[in-house]
Amino acid sequence: MARRSAPLLRRLLSPSPAPSPTSSSPLAGAVSRRTVTYMPRPGDGAPRRVTLIPGDGIGPLVTGAVRQVMEAMHAPVYFETYEVHGDMPTVPAEVLESIRRNKVCLKGGLATPVGGGVSSLNVQLRKELDLYASLVNCFNLPGLPTRHDNVDIVVIRENTEGEYSGLEHEVVPGVVESLKVITKFCSERIAKYAFEYAYLNNRKKVTAVHKANIMKLADGLFLESCREVAKKYPGIQYNEIIVDNCCMQLVSKPEQFDVMYNVLCLANLCGNQSTMVTPNLYGNLVANVAAGIAGGAGVMPGGNAGQDHAVFEQGASAGNVGNEKVVAQKKANPVALLLSSAMMLRHLQFPSFADRLETAVKRVIAEGKYRTKDLGGTSTTQEVTDAVIAKLE
Amino acid sequence: MARRSAPLLRRLVSSAPPAPLPGHGGGARRTVTYMPRPGDGTPRAITLIPGDGIGPLVTGAVRQVMEAMHAPVYFETYDVHGDMPAVPPAVVESIRRNKVCIKGGLATPVGGGVSSLNMQLRKELDLYASLVHCSNMPGLPTRHQDVDIVVIRENTEGEYSGLEHEVVPGVVESLKVRRLSLLFVVPEKKILSVQLYVLFRLSFKAAILVHVITKFCSERIAKYAFEYAYLNNRKKVTAVHKANIMKLADGLFLESCREVASKYPGIQYNEIIVDNCCMQLVAKPEQFDVMVTPNLYGNLVANTAAGIVGGTGVMPGGNVGQDHAVFEQGASAGNVGNENIVEQQKANPVALLLSSAMMLRHLQFPSFADRLETAVKRVIAEGQFRTKDLGGTSTTQEVTDAVIANLD
């Protein structure tokens, strides 16, 4: 018994790949084609207009990749391109008008100059269009080895207030005050959006990330709004976690999280002086940590949603437009923006095209032959794009 | 080692996970990167018509499953029976308001007098496309494999135009049995040809059925079929016809299809005569993808296709028009079963459950639609709870409970 049981035990304990009739690679079985019984309304196939903002740095590279893939799929979208650069004083009015008309926009990052004077155009865009929810979906891609498995986190982050309210002033020389504002109105609507997202996407748990032990009033207000909304969704578990513990748990046991949402930190409303001038925003941090453990900012899709409009961009670190070396060598990772454009297709109600795109991208990553530098490979953006187009069916 | 490994082995073997469903990524939950608009989760009102015969049984099953899923839909129920003279205006108004309806079948009395209420509903709401999705269900053995056919059928004209009349004795004798082709133009519908079939009966009376094909209706059903193929990543559209005999009528239909096909260069288009089509369906069904047909052929082809992959008890379908959609059992929607089945409560709810999944996807609740479809497919794959038409002995309620238990 002893001699025969050891190999048997070993076989049972080692993970066995699911048998896949559709492809030879064991990992591709997880991304086989799905039959959607989708009965469209007549006229659903009419092409939709989408605003496209290439942006700075790697932006034009990766948006070019999306454009090529959309053409190859014959997707019913066509792009209205607008040139916007991070050093412009404001987002041009015609761009805003175009997004208001088309309701959907896809953009590369806009580089924000460090230092005083010019405010970030990314943030400006979100405020103008009131895109109050920012969403990043961080999940393990099959075939991409990471230190953590079974990661599937969606970070929903309030986009319009908190530390990004942009209210800074110098009281006296040498003293700067930065106001971080939390309102019940914004907290409530982001809580509603997060619970509705969990409900519509069959998610079981929502975690509020806060620092209310320290910022009792502000984050306390935020938590109050979350608890109220949580009561209306009895089927969804709700819990709260302090942001520092959250970051630690993310890097040690990320599978306990499902949907997380949070607000940005602030100085309290009483106007006390604060010597913090910091970009330490819970949402920004948590999204980046989650993206990092699941494969990096180069692969995670995301977007910003408001009542009427939606802007899709690279999930985490949307303001990070890469350094000149990456741009010169054309080795930017297009996967994040491709998956975001798949989200966009699903938002526009073209589920079949979204499925095709996601399947093709996941197959390319699973195969492992065409990967850019951040995933450990040596391919260029164009090679990855061609591989995705080749895998479209 | 031997003493300790036996219980360990036993535990590992007994707790082995169930075999994954093929085509579902190992049965794992699909991560849908779906970013809803705020407010997308508000519940939608849907008209529900239980109908006759097995209708109330299967619509009750749908209702239970929707509640178990906490789906964002609520039903407005209306009682309609096949022997009513017309569909009550309250029902039609409700469907116009809600835009979506789910119904069981309405029994149509055979013989003259009362026209089918199913048909009436489709005409009132101008639901010009009827869609049936016939595909092999994993775990359900059939004589054919790899079948995935969608039959799109024109719903409002053709042989079902309902224009029948009886000629008095004496007039018949002068006509004999021959085809008459009359050419005339009617401005509002641009009819180009009408062909009369004269049917003789031994009592020397005759009944004439006017079979109308218009360019307007043929064009819109062809447009719908190609758009469906485009949006669902289908590669081929086949037009089913009998234009070698009915040269003008089906010729007009084919012309419309060819015109629309030229606008979709990425989709293959071919034509097949209906008799050959029926034979090919039962010999080599894997060659078909999307089929577009006029009314009568559509009924036959849809039922044949449904039959080869498991029967009308499992195939989902619906009727769609410009503004409204009515979901019902895919094929043979008018077949409400016999009293035996109703008494024993052994009707198959799978068809209507899958149709309600189509409805959820039509209402843009993809996650709920996925859950429902996955649960239903698991139940069928397991094979423990199957109704009589699939070879089992379960009742409707047992199948419904199994689906609810399999929801995740």
Automatic annotation (TrEMBL), chain A:
Pfam families given in the database record: Iso_dh
InterPro entries cross-referenced by the UniProt entry: Isocitrate_DH_NAD (IPR004434), IsoPropMal-DH-like_dom (IPR024084)
Subcellular compartments: Mitochondrion
Gene Ontology cellular-component annotations: mitochondrion
Keywords: Magnesium, Manganese, Metal-binding, Mitochondrion, NAD, Oxidoreductase, Transit peptide, Tricarboxylic acid cycle
A single GO BP: isocitrate metabolic process
Region of interest (Disordered), ranges: 1-46
Biased composition range(s): Low complexity: 1-28
Record's keyword annotation contains Manganese: yes
The keyword Transit peptide is assigned to this record: yes
Highest taxon of the lineage: Eukaryota
Isopropylmalate dehydrogenase-like domain sequence ranges: 49-388
GO MF assignments: isocitrate dehydrogenase (NAD+) activity; metal ion binding
Function: Performs an essential role in the oxidative function of the citric acid cycle.
Family label: Belongs to the isocitrate and isopropylmalate dehydrogenases family.
Protein's UniProt name: Isopropylmalate dehydrogenase-like domain-containing protein
UniProtKB/TrEMBL annotation, chain B:
Domain of life, per lineage: Eukaryota
InterPro entries: IsoPropMal-DH-like_dom
SUPFAM superfamilies, per database record: Isocitrate/Isopropylmalate dehydrogenase-like
Cellular component terms (Gene Ontology): mitochondrion
Region (Disordered): 1-31
Parts forming coiled coils: none
Molecular function GO labels: isocitrate dehydrogenase (NAD+) activity
Domain Isopropylmalate dehydrogenase-like: 45-403
Gene Ontology biological-process entries: isocitrate metabolic process; tricarboxylic acid cycle
Family note: Belongs to the isocitrate and isopropylmalate dehydrogenases family.
Record's protein name: Isopropylmalate dehydrogenase-like domain-containing protein
Native source species: Eragrostis curvula (weeping love grass)
